[in-house]
TrEMBL record:
Residue ranges of every copy of the SpoVT-AbrB domain listed in the record: 8-54
Pfam families, alphabetized: MazE_antitoxin, PhoU
Species this chain originates from: Halococcus hamelinensis 100A6
Signal sequence bounds: none
A molecular function GO annotation: DNA binding
InterPro entries: PhoU (IPR028366), PhoU-like_sf (IPR038078), PhoU_dom (IPR026022), SpoVT-AbrB_dom (IPR007159)
A biological process from GO: negative regulation of phosphate metabolic process
SUPFAM superfamilies: PhoU-like
Protein name from the UniProt record: Transcriptional regulator
């Protein structure tokens, strides 16, 4: 890092000199206009090329020889890192199966659509704007979907309700798509200070939204796992600790919602500390329940042990959200 002293020119203008090596590398000469981007963290970004608000990040990548799963992973990666438009090219042309693989990947990502297709290339474009409101709304919707999935998965277990379990499993893709959108915005902000400014958040707040979304997506995964267990149960009522297990799962969900309410519901940081307390108490309570299931002989005992493990993980994910809320609070108090 280099330092410069601020000079006063003409009695009213502050000036600093630019590093000569940097200026030479970017063709900076006298009279050249530079772009200055003030940021909320007291930094000032100097760019050799003036940014345009309507500039779209584009990419082009050759995918010759890619397997169908790797084609899908490439589409997901290009979307996640923040490209607004990208082109996949194949010198030998795309087969019908390869086009289906690209289309399947596109269907999993919010706002992504096929813009153009030829024999040798596929162009995809993001149709959504890049703003903070879309991040917040996505996390709010993700919380709603996750809580719905978790509540109904536990009900499906308690009643061995395969139909309800199937409904839960179907919604996991929705949770994945919502997290994917938040993940994309987060990675855009890592690549560009201008992207942070467009979102309207400071970086600690954006990270809190990302962390919350990541943990909610993991809770949704465990809700899907719990629902999958419900489809395999024979007679869960034969397990004497079923009611205690359902209560524990409910309490694990409350840890998550209480912690997330600090960011999403305007709650105070005290709710995050309360979530820590509830998490620790629940984890202690799960140990004797775990032993009871381990010692049981009913056919469904092992499967209900998987549900208990998901309840434990859910409580831990709620604790991770609470930790992010406390970190955000202490940063805000000392900025």
């Amino acid at each position: 890092m280099e330092t410069r002293k601020v000079q006063l020119t003409g009695g009213s203008t502050y000036t600093i000199s630019l590093p000569k090596r940097w200026a030479d590398e970017h063709g900076i000469e006298a009279g050249r206009e530079l772009s200055l981007e003030p940021n909320g963290d007291a930094s000032l970004v100097v760019r050799a090329t003036a940014p345009r608000n309507d500039r779209r990040a584009t990419a082009r990548i050759g995918v010759d020889g890619y397997t169908h799963p790797n084609l899908q992973r490439t589409v997901e990666a290009l979307y996640t890192v923040g490209f607004d438009e990208f082109t996949l090219s194949s010198s030998g042309g795309f087969s019908t199966a390869e086009r289906r693989a690209v289309t399947a990947a596109t269907a999993k990502l919010v706002g992504l659509e096929v813009l153009e297709e030829t024999d040798a290339r596929i162009v995809l474009t993001n149709m959504l704007g890049n703003d903070g409101e879309s991040v917040r709304q996505s996390v709010l919707q993700l919380e709603y979907v996750t809580v719905w999935m978790h509540r109904n998965a536990v009900t499906a277990v308690a009643n061995a309700d395969a139909d309800r379990a199937a409904q839960v499993i179907e919604r996991d893709d929705e949770a994945d798509r919502l997290f994917g959108l938040v993940n994309r915005q987060f990675h855009r902000a890592l690549r560009s200070m201008q992207a942070v400014e467009q979102l309207g958040f400071d970086r600690p707040t954006l990270f809190a939204y990302y962390t919350t979304a990541r943990q909610l997506e993991r809770v949704a995964d465990h809700a899907e796992r719990t629902a999958s267990v419900a489809r395999r149960l024979e007679d869960p009522t034969a397990v004497g600790s079923l009611d205690d297990l359902a209560t524990a799962a409910h309490e694990s969900r409350e840890v998550v919602t209480d912690a997330a309410s600090v960011l999403l519901g305007g709650g105070s940081v005290d709710q995050a500390y309360d979530a820590f307390t509830a998490r620790d108490r629940l984890l202690d309570d799960l140990d004797p329940l775990d032993r009871a299931l381990h010692d049981g002989s009913a056919p469904d005992t092992y499967l209900l042990g998987l549900v208990l493990d998901s309840a434990r993980r859910t409580a831990e994910y709620g604790g991770n959200i609470a930790e992010a809320m406390v970190q955000l609070s202490v940063q805000a108090q000392n900025d």
